[in-house]
Amino acid sequence: MGLITSPGLGSGLDVSSIIEAIVNADKAPVEFRLNQREAVAQTTLSGLGSLKSALSSLKTAAEKLDTVGDFNQRKVSISQSGFFTATATSTAALSTYAIEVVQLAKGSRVESAIIAGGSSQTFAADTLSFSAAGSSFNVDILATDTLADIRNKINNAEGNSFVSASIITTNDGTKLVYNSNKTGLGNDLVVTSGTAALDDLALNATTAQAAQDAVIKLDGATVNSSTNTFSSAISDVSITVQKANAANETSDLTVSLDTASTKKAIEDFVKAYNTTLEELNKLTLNSDTEVGLLVNDGATRGIITRLKNIIAETVGSVTGDAKSLAAIGVTTTRAGTLELKTSVLDSALSNNLQDVIGLFTNSDGVAAKLKSYVDQQVEGNGAIPSREQGIQNELNRISKERETLAIRTSKLQSRLRSQYAALDSIVSSLNSTSSFIAQNLTRIPNYSGSKE
């Protein structure tokens, strides 16, 4: 007799449920352990991501205080607004300059001859060429193009970034006017044509305004620029002129130290440190109502301790009084956070700036040490990336173990199905034999199937 293909059909047992129960009982302990390991790994990985992000934010704030240039920012003030603007780099000299704007830089303006037919006038087919200050482009004119069409072609021409064409009509008649944005003495617009057919638009055009330099007087000395920006008149200062002064009228440009930007950078650093400490404390929190992602992580607690030590340490390379953050008004609360006494900081920035600079930027300074320590934790093969890689390896192992478990479970299931199929076959055979015997016994005379 062949195997029964539907388990339980011969025996009457719910074989599928029995097999499922056996398989589940076999894999449940392994699956439970894998789930636990995966949950721990994922939680730790998430916590390390938050830790790395918090430390990186602190590093960003420290980087704004780790070079001398960060403390030497300049601000400019101008006695009269509207004539020029200015910016200064951190190396600009601290000084005051008298500046008179004599004239602004301008591009040239070229006007065609009077066009008798106005904007609807057409011309012979030809090419117009435009050039100024090393730039050029061409416009092909068709015999059917009107003056208005030519204007549009010029304005939309490929390679045209410096000429704007317009049609003007005065009492004298209609002209095509070309305005060039190429400023600077000698950078006049030149318009030419291939033949005499377009002479009225090219050869016979006149320069109504020549290109000119911007001119200023700096402490009485004349300075020219081909544009409206003077980038080298004063070293590390850029001046952009806006409007000409009246004759011999000057405006004072003063370059001074921008302690306000330094103060803000220190304030931002204090906020960033407090935010980072708050995030790290949250990650290691262990209370009745909340447990942090890195609650029992000794490495994270070690990072918190090291950050607090860096903040509290004195900077031995500073020779003056500002050897610690506390000396410039940045003190530590009982909770470990920082608070800032602005009056003390203002005094330090005004009277002891070089020591404040050293406190942050020296190789043993606060910003330099914080940046270096955070880099060791978060960059490249640092402590945190190495741990993240280790956890990822663990997750990969768990995934492979799940695959192995699935294969083992499948094999167990197949084996059980075969065994129960064999059992079904035996039971079915026995049932058939029993039925056969019972049927034949009933044929025996006076057999009732029971004893009297």
TrEMBL record:
Domain of life of the organism in this record? Bacteria
Task: Please indicate if the UniProt record lists Coiled coil as a keyword.
Answer: yes
Q: What positions does the domain Flagellar hook-associated protein 2 C-terminal occupy?
A: 211-432
One of the record's GO cellular component terms = extracellular region
What sequence ranges are listed for the domain Flagellar hook-associated protein 2 N-terminal? 11-107
Its subcellular locations are:
Secreted; Bacterial flagellum
Q: Which family does it belong to?
A: Belongs to the FliD family.
Looking up Pfam families in the UniProt record yields: Flagellin_IN (PF07196), FliD_C (PF07195), FliD_N (PF02465)
Q: Which UniProt keywords apply?
A: Bacterial flagellum, Cell projection, Cilium, Coiled coil, Flagellum, Secreted
Q: Does the keyword Secreted apply?
A: yes
Q: What does this protein do?
A: Required for morphogenesis and for the elongation of the flagellar filament by facilitating polymerization of the flagellin monomers at the tip of growing filament. Forms a capping structure, which prevents flagellin subunits (transported through the central channel of the flagellum) from leaking out without polymerization at the distal end.
- Cited InterPro entries: Flagellin_hook_IN_motif, FliD, FliD_C, FliD_N
Q: What is the name listed in the Swiss-Prot or TrEMBL entry for this protein?
A: Flagellar hook-associated protein 2
Assembly, in brief, is: Homopentamer.
A Gene Ontology annotation in the biological process aspect, one of them, is:
bacterial-type flagellum-dependent cell motility
